[in-house]
Amino acid sequence: MHLDSYSSVLCIENVDEDIMHHFFTPFSSACWTYLDIHWNTSVDFQTMMLEARVNFGSVIFREVIIMAMWSIWTHRNSIIFDGGSLSFAWWRRSFVEGMMTVTLRINSHIKDKIVVWLSSL
């Protein structure tokens, strides 16, 4: 796909977007901080993921990571393709709505953990 620019729309650094930059820009870092997920970006991706999971300390880590990344990605796309603007509130609303949707399709034990965790944010 041709775009006018391949610079990251989630930061002001005016650098080409790549996967690490996309999910670990200052904007994305604010999202991770809100979720109390801390990334050690000085190690390889697999180690980074394993360390974050251990530090998060909950069985809902996978669901949270997937929905957070999906919300960051769709927010990026709304900026590029729909003329949206960078908004933490937009991302947070998308994330919470997505997590609540996940609770409709998951076993009750995990659902309860998600609901309690979301209420603590």
* Uncertain residue ranges: none
Strand content: under 5%
Summed up, the domain count is: 1
Termini separation comes to 37 Å
**Helix-strand sequence:** HHHHHH
Describe the structure.
The chain is mainly α. It has one domain (19-119). Helix content is 62%, strand content 0%. The chain is built from 6 helices and no strands. It has helices at 19-23, 26-34, 45-56, 61-82, 88-102, 108-119. The longest helix is centred in the middle third of the chain and has 22 residues, at 61-82. The radius of gyration is 15 Å and the shape is globular. It starts with 18 loop residues before the first helix and ends with a helix.
Helix and strand topology:
Layout: H1 19-23, H2 26-34, H3 45-56, H4 61-82, H5 88-102, H6 108-119
Helix pairs in contact: 4-5, 5-6
In brief:
With 121 residues, the chain is mostly helical. The protein is built from 6 helices and no strands.
Distinctive features:
mainly alpha, 6 helices, 0% strand, 121 residues, globular, single chain
